[in-house]
Amino acid sequence: MQTTHTSTAARQSQDVSASKLKRLLDHNEHLKDQLNVPRTTVSEAATRLVDYCNSTKDPLVPSVWGAVDKKEDPYGPTKKSHCCTLM
C-alpha cells in the first residue's frame, strides 16, 4: 500500500509541475506577443490628444466654441409627440 500512495503522490507532484510549466510557457508567449505591439511615446499621444481637442467641436463647452445651434445640439431638448408608445 505504501508504494501506491507514493506513486500517487509522485504523479500529483508531476501534474502540478507540468501545470506550473504550462502556465509559465503561456505567460512567456504572452510577453513575447506584447513585444510586437506597436508603441507610441507619451509626447506623441499627448500631441494627438491636443490636436483632437482643438479640432473637434464640443457642444458642452460653449465658452470655447460658442453657442450651438439648437438643430445641431445633440444634447438639446427633442420635440416630443403627443402620443404614447406601448410595448
Key features of this structure:
mainly alpha
Write the layout of secondary structure elements.
Layout: H1 2-35, H2 42-55, H3 62-65
Evaluate the radius of gyration. 31 Å
The helix-strand sequence is HHH
**Alpha-beta content class:** mainly alpha
What's the total number of strands?
Answer: 0
The residue ranges in which pLDDT falls below 50 over 5 or more consecutive positions are: none
Percent helix among the residues?
55-70%
Straight-line distance between termini:
70 Å
Q: Beta fraction of the residues?
A: under 5%
The averaged pLDDT comes out at 85
In oligomeric terms, what are we looking at?
single chain
How many helices? The count is 3
Please state the overall shape, judged from the principal axes of the Cα atoms. elongated
Main beta-sheet strand count, sense and barrel state: none
Describe this structure in words.
Keywords: Lipoprotein, Membrane, Methylation, Palmitate, Prenylation, Transducer. This is Guanine nucleotide-binding protein subunit gamma. This protein has 87 residues and is an all-alpha fold. The protein has a domain at 12-55. Helices cover 60% and strands 0% of the residues. The chain is built from three helices and no strands. The radius of gyration is 31 Å and the shape is elongated. The protein starts with a helix and ends in a 22-residue tail after the last helix. The model has no long low-confidence stretch (mean pLDDT 85).
Quick recap:
The protein is mainly α and 87 residues long. It has 3 helices and no strands. The longest helix is centred in the N-terminal third of the chain and has 34 residues.
